Amino acid sequence: MAWDPAQYGLFEAARARPGHDLMAALPPLKPATVVDLGCGAGKLTMALANRYSVAEVAGVDSSAAMLGRAALLDTRVAWQLGDIRHWRPAAPVHLLFSNAALQWVEGHGEIFPQLLSYVAPGGVMAVQMPRNFTSPSHALLRQVAADGPWAGLLEGRLREAPVHEPAQYYDWLVPGAAHVDVWETEYLHVLDGPDPVLEWTKATAMLPVLETLTGAMLADFIERYRAALAAAYPRRVDGRTLFPFRRLFIVATRA
Ligand SMILES: C[S@@+](CC[C@H](N)C(=O)[O-])C[C@H]1O[C@@H](n2cnc3c(N)ncnc32)[C@H](O)[C@@H]1O
C-alpha cells in the first residue's frame, strides 16, 4: 500500500504512545539483537536503539517511503526493506518488537507462532495492534464504501476485523512460550484540527480507498465519510475531538 509518512506523522504523539507503553511493559532485558517489524518511519526503532544502546538494531518495513524517512534518522540502525510474511532472521533475535504493523499481515495463526520461533530462548516478542475495527471510524468507512457508485470498485478492499480476540493470540503463542501476557487498553486520544478522525484514517484504514478511487468520485466519498465522522465524533467544549481507540498488547517470553 502507498504509505505516506507525512500524513501518518500528523498525529505522531498519539500514534507513538502505545508503542512507548509497550516498551514500558517489557521485562528487564539486555538484548544483543533487536528487530522492529513494520518499523515505518522509525521513531520507535530509534527509541529502542537508544534504550538498548549496545544492541544491534534493525528496522524492517515493506514501504520504501516509510523507510526513506527512517533512514534520515540514524545510521546505527540497519533499515531493511522487506515483507514480514517472508522475513526470517539470520540468527535468533533477543527482542522482536512490532507496533501497529502485524494487523496488516494476513495469516496470524501461522505468523505469530512463526515469529516467536525466531526469538532466542528467554528473549521476548512484543506486539501492539489496534483492535478498533467495529468502532465508528472503521464501521462508517465500510458503510460508505458499500453504499455508493464506488461499491463495486471497493468490494473486498476493506478488511472487516483483521485482529482476533485476545485469547486467540495466547493460544497461538503459548506452546512456544514460557510466559504470555496479553491485555487491552482503550485510549481516548485528544485530536486537534477540523475533521481529525478523517485525517487519522487517511493514513491507515482509508489507504485502499485512496488507492482505488480518483477525481470527483474520491471527493464525493471523502465528503460522505467526513460528514458521517463529524456526527459520530462531535467536537468537545474546547473544540477538540476525542477519539476512543482500543489496542491489543502482547508480550511473550520465549521458552
Ligand atoms: C501503522 S504503520 C506503523 C509504523 C511504526 N511501527 C510505528 O509505530 O510508527 C504500519 C507499518 O507497517 C508496514 N507494513 C505493513 N505490512 C507489512 C508487511 N507485510 N511487511 C513489512 N512491513 C509492513 C507499513 O509499511 C507501515 O510502515
UniProtKB/TrEMBL annotation:
Chief location bin: cytoplasm
E.C. designation(s): 2.1.1.144
Classification via InterPro entries: Methyltransf_25 (IPR041698), SAM-dependent_MTases_sf (IPR029063), Trans-aconitate_MeTrfase (IPR023506), Trans_acon_MeTrfase_C (IPR023149)
One GO BP: methylation
Localization terms from the record: Cytoplasm
Swiss-Prot/TrEMBL keywords: Cytoplasm, Methyltransferase, S-adenosyl-L-methionine, Transferase
Domain Methyltransferase residues, every copy: 34-123
Reaction catalyzed: trans-aconitate + S-adenosyl-L-methionine = (E)-3-(methoxycarbonyl)pent-2-enedioate + S-adenosyl-L-homocysteine
Gene3D superfamilies xrefs: S-adenosyl-L-methionine-dependent methyltransferases, Vaccinia Virus protein VP39
GO molecular function: trans-aconitate 2-methyltransferase activity
The keyword ATP-binding is assigned to this record: no
Record PANTHER family: TRANS-ACONITATE 2-METHYLTRANSFERASE, TRANS-ACONITATE 2-METHYLTRANSFERASE-RELATED
Family from the record: Belongs to the methyltransferase superfamily. Tam family.
Protein name in the entry: Trans-aconitate 2-methyltransferase
